[in-house]
Amino acid sequence: MRIRLVELKALSNNVYDQSRLPRLGQPQIAAILAEHGHDVLMYVETLAPVDVDDLLRADLVGISSTSGTTPPSYALADKLRAQGVPVVFGGSHVTFVPDEALDHADYVVRGEGHATMLELVRALESGGDVSEIAGLSYWRGGEKVHTVARPNCDEATFAGLPVPDLTRIVGYENMATYPVMTQWGCPYDCNFCSVIKMFGRKVRARPVEDVLEQLAQIPPGGDIFFYDDNLVVDKRRTKELLRGMIDRGLTIPWSGQMRAEAVLDRRTGQWDTELLELMRDSNCVWVYIGFESVNPAALAEYNKKQTVDDIAESIRAFHAYGIPIHGMFVLGCDADTPETVEATVQFAIKQRIDTVQFMTITPFPGTEFYDNMAAEGRILSDDWSLYDGHHVVIQPKNMTPYELQMAAFRAMLRFYAPRRAVRLLIGNIVRELPFLLTLFVRERKLRIVLPRVAQLGFRKEDGVMQIQLLLQKVLDAATWLRLRAVFIVPMFRQYAYKHTRQGIRQPINQEYIAWLRKMSKRLQGRESGYQASGK
Description:
- This protein is of the alpha/beta class.
- The protein contains 22 helices and 16 strands.
- The strands form 3 sheets. It has an 8-stranded mixed β-sheet, with helices on both faces. Strands 9-12-13-14-15-16 form a 6-stranded parallel β-sheet. A two-stranded antiparallel ribbon has the order 10-11.
- The longest helix has 29 residues, at 477-505.
- The N and C termini lie far apart (71 Å).
């Protein structure tokens, strides 16, 4: 069969715009289908435009969406189906709202989709019955049918799955970072997270040897991003992986997601210096940590199972070993007030976290938080394009929706204020001035491309990414990494400031902000009236 897979981008500015990383579910499914002789290509809109004419010639189009990308995905599906092209949806959003998704699709694959998708394609190719395929929703006689849920795969099955085939993505050569998944699932139970609802709390891990073999096949010149929701679930396994990378010379610059206390000894509270040394020596260049909040009551509400002391100590530990931190915070839970939001921003600045994201808490379908907000009637909009962490879609307890929205914007703009980026850049340049001068004299290729680097610095969309790609081509790995350490954080901060301002000014966001302001005033009026009548 001629099968095309699609992943669209969000309608408005999004914190993930510059990542240029596909989610790995579809590339893995592409590898499975290709192994069985099917003609498979995938379009990821952040990497290359989607060729709709090619989709219209397909026997089946699979679309994966998050909540925030669901509206454009539904629109594309409607267009394809109007031309007689069958469409199947998959992903975390449609798994929990299959009835809604079926209004725009012929089939919905719920949960982990690798087995369900292969069985569906086999049935369609042979004209067989789909009613026995677990984890599938479909139409039968004008009615929506949902088959029994498919259990999440066990560790042996996960380990046997093929490596996602990124070469089947149109424009895959535009990726500067190579995504690697070593585990599925997360043992924790944060109330706002859809990961555990999709992949479960039982962690399935690939053998370390298999991961090392994959790393050995990665083309030189790029970075690695470990896609695991928590890379350090089993410290012994993580250390074995990092030690293997060092021993085999696979010290490709890498980044990954982990919890704050990953580098702390739970029994003593001391730093896990063995892990920190392995991370440094294996060339960890960034860690992404879900701090979520520095409000203890908020951490308890999120069921985060970490303390503010854990957060502060982990920052000190990572920085002591020269590892930059991207701190991820969630604002707006019932324990939050305008004062705690301000305290969170101040904490991030004082602790010198390298980069951050301040997202508003979002009720994603399937989560405990969604169920609670829906039961309390506190969800403001069912426009899924707003479910991206950048838009307030709930009624907060201790502030108006408009106040939370503007507090989140101000938090980003304050942290990424240009003066902070300039001050950081100057400090880095002064510290590394001898290296920079020597580099300029020694590297003729660098001198040649500098005008192009300057031009790219003014590009709105992908300037930072293109600069990295260009410099990696003209410098050896060690020199590039040292140069990047001077410029990467200030450049990212400049980008984040511009990106946030652009997002605020987008017409679609200006319209929503105006609506929030009016709606918040109405809510305040009702509350004032209620209090007055109760006196």
